Automatic annotation (TrEMBL):
It comes from Actinomycetospora succinea. GO terms for molecular function: fatty acid synthase activity. GO terms for biological process: fatty acid biosynthetic process. Residues 11-120 form the MaoC-like domain. GO terms for cellular component: fatty acid synthase complex. Belongs to the enoyl-CoA hydratase/isomerase family. This is Acyl dehydratase. Coiled coil: none annotated. InterPro entries: Fatty_acid_synthase, HotDog_dom_sf, MaoC-like_dom. It holds the Pfam family MaoC_dehydratas.
Length: 139
C-alpha cells in the first residue's frame, strides 16, 4: 500500500525537494514544443523583464503531479490535478540549478477511498504554484 493509500484527512505527506537545471529546461522544451527563449536564453529573459531564465510553468506543474503520483504508487491513480502559476522558478546557469520544495496534505477522503490532496511548491521560500489540488482514486 502506498503512503497516500494509508493517509487520512489532515495527514501531511513526506515532502520532496526537486532540482531543475538548464538542461532540464532544454529537454522539456524539446519534448513539449515550447521553445520560448525565456526558458533558455538569459539575454531574452532579461530583455522582457524577467529576473533570468525561468522554468516552464507546465514543467513545474508536472514535477508536482509526478510527486503525487509517486505518493500514490500509481500514476493512473491521479485522476485530476489543477493549479495556478503564481511565481516563476528562476533557473541559474550553473551545475546546481534551482530547487523546488514540494509538500502535500490529504484534505479529504471520500467513501470510495478517493483522496483530495493539496500540494505546495516553493522556490526560495515563496510559493510557485497556487491552489494545487489533486484527486487520487485507488485502483
Amino acid at each position: 500500500m502506498s503512503a497516500l493509500g494509508d493517509a487520512s484527512a489532515g495527514d501531511q505527506l513526506e515532502p520532496r525537494t526537486v532540482t531543475i537545471t538548464r538542461a532540464d529546461l532544454v529537454a522539456y522544451a524539446g519534448a513539449s514544443g515550447d521553445l520560448n527563449p525565456i526558458h533558455w536564453n538569459e539575454r531574452v529573459a532579461l530583455e522582457v523583464g524577467l529576473p533570468g531564465v525561468i522554468a516552464h510553468g507546465m514543467f513545474t506543474m508536472s514535477l508536482a503531479a509526478r510527486y503525487v503520483a509517486d505518493l500514490a504508487g500509481d500514476p493512473a491513480a491521479v485522476v485530476a490535478f489543477s493549479t495556478r502559476f503564481t511565481r516563476p522558478v528562476v533557473v541559474p546557469d550553473d551545475d546546481a540549478g534551482a530547487t523546488v520544495e514540494l509538500g502535500a496534505k490529504v484534505t479529504d477522503v471520500t467513501d470510495d477511498g478517493a483522496r483530495t490532496v493539496t500540494v505546495t511548491a516553493t522556490h526560495d521560500g515563496k510559493g510557485v504554484l497556487g491552489k494545487a489540488v489533486a484527486t487520487v482514486r485507488p485502483r
